[in-house]
Amino acid sequence: MLAHVSPWHARALQRIAAGPAEPLSVPARMEWTTRPGQGPGAEILGPDPRGKRLLELGCGPGHNAAHLATRHGAHVTGVDLVGLQVRRARSHYGRLNNLAFVAGHALHCLQASDEQFDAIYSVFGAVGLVAPELLLPAIAQRLKPGRTLAFSVPHPQRGGLRPTTDDRPRRDYVTLPDRSQLPIARWEFAARRWEQHLSQAGFWLTSARDFHDPGAGQWPTTLLIRARKL
What we know:
Layout: H1 7-18, E1 53-57, H2 63-71, E2 75-80, H3 83-93, E3 99-103, H4 106-112, E4 117-123, H5 132-142, E5 143-154, E6 170-175, E7 181-186, H6 191-200, E8 203-211, E9 222-229
Parallel strand pairs: 1-2, 1-4, 2-3, 4-5
Antiparallel strand pairs: 5-9, 6-7, 8-9
């Protein structure tokens, strides 16, 4: 049965079955990597997010969006493909001001909107899971000139893998709470190839950083990209 269900929907179903979503305290920092407390926080989105309009593509349970809205006074919209995840995020943080969660495909939401954002970000979210030649230009349309796109993705060399050498996605897997796995397609580029795609969409790559999780061996686990719209 689960083989015919979206892997992300299946994961949300298992998490809901494990226990009801309840209001949570707002996280003390923004997380970009597989290891909490590692790397930068909200500062990567700009020097002062207060009052700025931010968009998260693939918000999941809403932790980062809640942090930005509450600790930094930003106006944040979180988009997630899975309606169950959006429901969970609202259960966790729906009481907060300056925060909205929307269910929908990231690409479709970008294409249907006419809003302009001060920063757009994705933390193991839509970037890398939607064809970059479609998603990055759509992001550029919704981002104000000179403003930031930041995203973290699973490192293409994690576990000793090699980055893809063309524009085709690679087969990857989503691990569910019960430790079973379902296949997905993921675009896994090295920083140089991300730079090429970003440039084609009207961005300038400003930084690319590797992060390691000591529990995962010698290979980097997270690639964090920051770019500016030209």
